[in-house]
UniProtKB/TrEMBL annotation:
Full protein name: DUF4912 domain-containing protein
Pfam families, A to Z: DUF4912
Domain of life: Bacteria
InterPro entries cross-referenced by the UniProt entry: DUF4912 (IPR032585)
Amino acid sequence: MVLINIEALSTTELQYIAQQEGMNDWDSLERQNLIEALEELYETENGELSTDYNARERITRRRYINTLTDFRGNSEHVSNLPGVVALPSAYAATSIHVMLREPGWAHAYWNISPLVLEKLGDQSSTQLVFHLNVEIVDPSDRHKIESFDIEIGSEDREWNINIPNPRSWYMVRLMCRTSEGDKELCRSQVVTLVSPWWWEQDRTFIDPRTFTLNICPLITKGGTLIDNRTISDWVSALVHGAVEAGR
């Protein structure tokens, strides 16, 4: 949620906020009067004390003036925001992009040109089926290539992908299965995963004090390890290494 400086807003934006907050004379007040009225409104709201959670939440929401960033669950309100225009449902280019979310997860998003979809439909006698092909390369052995497919729906435009090896290169292809076989529509750039520093420090963390010092931030208040596959694999490897070292 973004805290907005009221005085930095345009008069149109101030009028929109005043209208959303239910001020009857929002369209007739001068700019300075609008600012003073809104400040008074939020000061009053923030000064109210209540033990009711919903009431406190409403006060917080008004304090941060999130009508510019939150359209209150109704998509029709978006087009009414100052300077906001609707994005096209599709673009002319067919492309796929991937970005790293964390060491073990990537986010892919793509667009399929309507012309490409129309052409594929004309060429295929069966229903079009799409899937993502994920190719993973081990930098230490470039001949070692692993790949797997992810079935996606025709309306899907994004997907979170688990990358099992945090020390690898990967690329994602957008594929279409037609009556003539699999057809590659586009491919992403090659992305290099960066290993976390602690992933390369296995021997260092075998020391009990060092392990405790660095593992504490990864433990929840309930005493369990945070839900992250990469960290779980790393801890398992450390525990296995400690057992082997103690033999």
